[in-house]
Amino acid sequence: MTHSSRRSLLFGGAALGAGAVLAACTSNESNNPTTAQTKGAEASNPNVAAGKAVTIGFSAPAADHGWIAAITNNAKAQAAAYSDVTFKQVEAGKDAAAQRAALDTLIAEKPDVIVLLPHDGKELNAFGLKAMEAGIPVVNLDRAFPDALAYRLQIKGDNYGMGVAAGHYIGKAMKAKNVASPVIGEIAGMDELELTQERSKGFADALKTYGFKVANRRAARFTADTGQKEAQNLLQALPKLDALWNHDDDQGIGVLAAITAANRSEFIMVGGAGSKKAIEDIAADKSVLKATVTYSPSMASSAISLGRLIAQGRGMADLVELQVPKEIILSSETITKENAGTYLKLGF
């Protein structure tokens, strides 16, 4: 596998993690993943060579948000890139119990590997244990199982790293502007979710290294409506603002609407997740939005590729080890006007 091939396979970037109820990002109008979200069958990649025919079972919640839609579409497209893969999708239902029931039926069909993004990692942990005990490797995608025995591979984004990336971007920007005591706002996602808490902790920890802290924090619900409402409240509470981090680009649509309505432009804003719309806005550079930190649904493509290798008893071409690793955490990358053109193909 070439360096560029491996980088694309492992490329990740930034919306919902362990225990999330809702996905969190804006979809583009097309339901088709970009070519960069999946890896085709390049002849230069030795892992692409056809191996043992395998059946990959797959389950993810219904596409009520763009990020979840991209997860499923990417998984399907990646499986279709391999002549030796049969893709069998089972419905996740409306909650963890319904998903578990559907997956229990899948176990009876004995697929070679199961890739799933659970409604809730903790509630689906028992299924992971059951499948592994039945000899079916499980690839746990994004929302973590708490029990390491419940999965063969866990692949997820870095929620803490999102906060760190956002904090460093804002910290460096404030230092560059010689703002000694910046007023910094934060609009989080759903506060009851561990992923939101991780993002906020990473943000606070990074800001602390510059001697900065958050002046006002509001929690929205990963929707444009709640983003707009909480942004209105935050802007009213802070008549002067230097920087704002909004955790999610979907709710960011509402945040930006509130900013426009309030006729505020004295600050910079950083988004979260890396939606196509946000990247286009950053490239255009006509609003307060200057950057976003990624959490890419390309992780679903990687999960299918790695699940295939696990089922075939193969390792990753660039690694000395003979097996696929146990856990992969994808880095959160920072998209700015300078690199937006490069990252646009990964927008969703």
Automatic annotation (TrEMBL):
In the record, the note on similarity to other proteins reads: Belongs to the bacterial solute-binding protein 2 family.
Judging by the UniProt lineage, the source's domain of life is Bacteria
In what residue span(s) does the Periplasmic binding protein domain sit? 56-314
Cell location: Cell envelope
Its main subcellular localisation, reduced to a broad class, is: other
Sorted keywords for this record are: Signal
Q: What is this protein called?
A: Substrate-binding domain-containing protein
Which PROSITE patterns does this UniProt record tie to the protein? PROKAR_LIPOPROTEIN, TAT
PANTHER family, per this entry?
Answer: D-ALLOSE-BINDING PERIPLASMIC PROTEIN-RELATED
State the organism named in the record: Hamadaea flava
Q: How far does the signal peptide extend, from start to end residue?
A: 1-23
